Amino acid sequence: MPYLLNQAADVTSREFEATYKAKYGMLRTEWRVVFHLGRYGSLTAKEICDRARVHKTKVSRAVHALESKKFLSRKTLPDDRRHETLSLTKTGSRVFADLCEQAQLFDAKLMAEFSKSERAMMRKFLIRVAKF
Amino acid sequence: MPYLLNQAADVTSREFEATYKAKYGMLRTEWRVVFHLGRYGSLTAKEICDRARVHKTKVSRAVHALESKKFLSRKTLPDDRRHETLSLTKTGSRVFADLCEQAQLFDAKLMAEFSKSERAMMRKFLIRVAKF
DNA sequence: ACTTGTTAGTTACAAAAGCAACTATTATTC
DNA sequence: GAATAATAGTTGCTTTTGTAACTAACAAGT
User: Fold this and answer.
1) pLDDT tens figures, A68-127
2) pLDDT at residue number A2
3) pTM of the predicted model, to two decimals?
4) Residues with CB under 7 A from strand D
């Protein structure tokens, strides 16, 4: 089962990876960070680590890359100067919107051959396995 | 969906990875090669690449590593000296058997909370998505 | 207030993956 | 049958990831 999951994950993400790589020169982790910020609003790096289950060094590097691309900005919190909130810039939001749309299209295409109930079951299953 | 698949794949394979890493110092690709050889008998490196969807350099390196661990042996085919058939040694077979058992246990544990029909559906779904 | 511990994030170094060029062997085509 | 193309596998170099040690800021206990 892990093997099947890996294969499926690989096949599906490779394809979409090509999109954001070609369009914005983004890496997988960078897209994940953008996605989380776009979806959940401003977050700290730590929160992204926890939600996305990505190691903090990966997030740290992705944040630097995205910052230099002007896709996000950070602001140190005055009440605890260890934290910094990350938020998408206008450019970043546009990128997010664009890629989100692409992702949706991709997802729809992928799921087209399955019934509504199958899709629901799948989702439930994966969420359970992924321990969300 | 790709996101969910990735998370699920990650969670499940990390755990099992620890097993073969600790027991035999094997890397993910190495386990995959052993698995394919154990499951389908002797194969060439190319066949493993295609079946397991792994790049040939990764397979090449995994084969070297496994060879130096005496888990597999290779034999150049006389009729086409470009190919070499890979097969598990006795040690390799034992390793495969052991890890297979572990994998089965792990799988059973993972799937325990799902009904038979759910499992069957999942399997079907993943196979379809992974384009097998 | 000062040691001790924790938490957020970074950096440096090591391991692994990806990519492109290479060798050696066989197939093809003119 | 020589030239060209194709295939299996390897090697070297670059990029990405993983790990562990580090800095900086805060928290708690004594």
Assistant:
1) 999 999 999 988 999 999 999 999 999 999 999 999 999 999 899 899 998 998 999 999
2) 86
3) 0.89
4) A 27-29, 55, 57-58, 61, 79-82; B 44-46, 49, 56-57, 59-61, 63-64, 82-84
**What pLDDT, on a 0 to 100 scale, did the predictor assign at position A92?**
96
- Specify the pLDDT at position B68: 94
Contact B16, A8 (CB under 8 A): no
Long-range contacts of B50-55 (CB under 8 A, 24+ apart): B53/A7, B53/A10, B53/A11, B54/B29
Domains of chain A and CATH, by start: 2-129 (1.10.10.10)
Amino acid letter, A44: T
The strand pairing partners of B86, in sequence order, are B43, B74
Sign (positive or negative) of CA dihedral A122, A1, A58, B64? negative
Q: Tell me how close the Cα of A89 comes to any Cα of chain B, in angstroms.
A: 23
Residue pair A38/A20 in contact (Cβ under 8 Å)? The answer is no
Q: Cα–Cα distance between A47 and B100 in angstroms, integer?
A: 37
